[in-house]
């Protein structure tokens, strides 16, 4: 594993060579691509921002974003297949800009103790579209804060403090989020002790089953493994006996999809042991997987659902913690007493974003374009030995690159090479876990645009290795 040396002189592990902001390939790419203006801005950025892995120093600098495109200072355009999962409706949607402007003119802020029409309308809308009866909500500015609220609600409602979550998961950068998260990069290092009682179990990653069971073309062989990953959640809930909640992403954004029946088994285990089930749908919610919520594929309703990212339409920061009414049990305390808890402008942005998603049929588009893309990815796998596994749902797609299909040795070097080759041809995506090319385009993308992007990927895979 490579390391980034932070300012305090401690070694912080990099998540992956492909995403590292210090790799040699990246240095070569930026040296070739940056013009004087870009170089100066990136240097200024690195001068004034705290350095952190996979973020600062930056790769390059942007001037505009529109639809599925981002554009750098030199006018180079890239299809944005990353977008931090905020860009479901595409960048700069005109209707959203209008709605935000109108809201700014009328009521730009509401101090605490006052409500307003947009925040109530958004709460009602979320209650209307969410699965089950999740009808009590708190808004926060970012996803990590919304995770904190979920953890506090779970503690207050159950009188317990322990959690069970999954290694390799991500739930945000706050102390609570980092504690229940399972990515080493966000947990270890110089920040010190995390929340007590945060237990972790091995995740569902069937292509690389942590329990050692073999997969069949990326899919689990349930007759062999008997879903040990779900059984182990039950085991821990039973042994501990006082767990407040299981918290997880119903579909991992890597991506990794659960084996069929996984969440139903975990839901049952939670019910049997008095633990709540919290689904973090910050990246997957609002249509990314071809359903409004990823948990709808599993026919499982959580007790608490957390949304964020795309909720602000790729323009403003807003997240939400949605709970079933029975969890509204801490009215005498302040659970999520945030300054922008009832910001009318961010609420208007979220409300309009959901309306755009519904009225433009973006969930259906994600399902349709996504399933065609998955077929094409399968074809890429058939033709490129480098591709070990292809997986995804809707427009949450990924290709895992391996040095050798038998040993499944991760091809981190090749993944990084493909990343920069694709950037050179106008396609931007991120690598996850070092060797997974993760593709999350806006849900507005057309079949033709997706084909164009996959043609680029095809050529880059051919050149890499
Ligand atoms: C699954 C998941 N949970 C939580 C978060 C944290 O959200 P935010 O960065 O808005 O705090 C993220 C962000 O990437 C995420 O992907």
What does this 3D model show about the protein?
The structure is a single chain. The chain is α/β, with parallel strands linked by helices and 465 residues long. The chain has 2 domains: 3-89 and 362-463, Aspartate Aminotransferase, domain 1 (Alpha-Beta Complex); 94-359, Type I PLP-dependent aspartate aminotransferase-like (Major domain) (Aspartate Aminotransferase, domain 2, 3-Layer(aba) Sandwich). Helices cover 37% and strands 17% of the residues. The protein has helices at 24-33, 36-48, 94-106, 117-129, 143-158, 175-180, 184-187, 222-225, 228-240, 262-273, 344-359, 362-383, 412-424, 447-463; strands at residues 3-5, 11-13, 62-66, 69-72, 77-80, 136-140, 162-166, 198-201, 215-216, 219-220, 243-248, 276-280, 304-307, 319-323, 387-393, 396-401, 427-428, 430-432, 436-439. A 7-stranded mixed beta sheet has the order 6-14-13-12-11-7-8, sandwiched between helices. Strand 1 and strand 2 form a beta hairpin. Helix 9 (228-240) runs parallel beside helix 10 (262-273). The longest helix has 22 residues, at 362-383. It is globular. The two termini are 20 Å apart. Bound molecules: pyridoxal-5'-phosphate (PLP). The site of pyridoxal-5'-phosphate has 13 residues, from helix 5. Pyridoxal-5'-phosphate (PLP) binds next to helix 5.
């Amino acid at each position: 594993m490579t390391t980034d040396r932070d300012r305090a002189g401690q070694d912080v592990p990099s998540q992956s060579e492909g995403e590292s902001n210090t790799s040699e390939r990246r240095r070569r790419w930026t040296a070739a691509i940056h013009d004087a203006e870009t170089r100066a801005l990136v240097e200024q950025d690195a001068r004034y921002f705290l350095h952190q892995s996979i973020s600062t120093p930056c790769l390059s600098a942007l001037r505009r974003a529109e639809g599925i495109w981002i554009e750098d200072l030199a006018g180079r355009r890239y299809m944005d297949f990353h977008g931090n999962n905020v860009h479901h409706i595409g960048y700069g949607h005109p209707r959203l800009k209008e709605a935000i402007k109108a809201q700014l003119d009328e009521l730009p802020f509401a101090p605490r103790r006052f409500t307003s029409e947009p925040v109530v309308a958004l709460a009602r809308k979320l209650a209307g579209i969410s699965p089950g009866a999740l009808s009590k909500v708190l808004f926060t500015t970012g996803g990590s804060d919304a995770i904190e609220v979920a953890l506090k609600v779970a503690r207050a409602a159950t009188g317990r403090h322990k959690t069970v979550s999954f290694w390799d998961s991500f739930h945000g950068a706050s102390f609570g989020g980092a504690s229940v998260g399972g990515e080493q990069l966000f947990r270890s290092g110089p920040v010190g002790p995390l929340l007590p009682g945060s237990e972790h179990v091995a995740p569902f990653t069937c292509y690389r089953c942590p329990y050692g069971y073999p997969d069949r073309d990326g899919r689990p062989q349930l007759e062999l493994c008997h879903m040990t990953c779900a059984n182990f959640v039950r085991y821990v809930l039973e042994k501990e006996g006082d767990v407040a909640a299981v918290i997880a992403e119903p579909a991992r954004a890597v991506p990794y999809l659960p084996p069929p029946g996984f969440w139903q088994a975990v839901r049952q285990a939670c019910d049997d042991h008095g633990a709540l089930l919290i689904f973090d749908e910050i990246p997957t919610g609002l249509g990314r997987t071809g359903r409004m919520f990823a948990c709808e594929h599993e026919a499982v309703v959580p007790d608490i659902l957390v949304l964020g990212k795309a909720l602000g339409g790729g323009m403003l920061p807003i997240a939400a913690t949605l709970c079933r009414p029975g969890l509204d049990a801490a009215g005498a305390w302040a659970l999520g007493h945030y300054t922008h808890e009832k910001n009318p402008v961010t609420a208007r942005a979220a409300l309009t974003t959901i309306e755009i998603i519904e009225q433009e049929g973006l969930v259906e588009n994600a399902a349709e374009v996504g399933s065609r893309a998955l077929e094409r990815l399968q074809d890429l796998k058939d033709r490129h030995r480098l591709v070990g596994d292809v997986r995804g749902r809707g427009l949450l797609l990924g290709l895992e690159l391996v040095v050798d299909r038998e040993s499944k040795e991760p091809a981190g070097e090749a993944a990084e090479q493909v990343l920069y080759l694709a950037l050179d041809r106008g396609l931007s995506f991120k690598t996850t876990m070092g060797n997974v090319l993760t593709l999350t385009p806006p849900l507005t993308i057309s079949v033709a645009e997706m084909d164009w992007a996959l043609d680029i990927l095809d050529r880059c895979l051919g050149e890499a290795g």
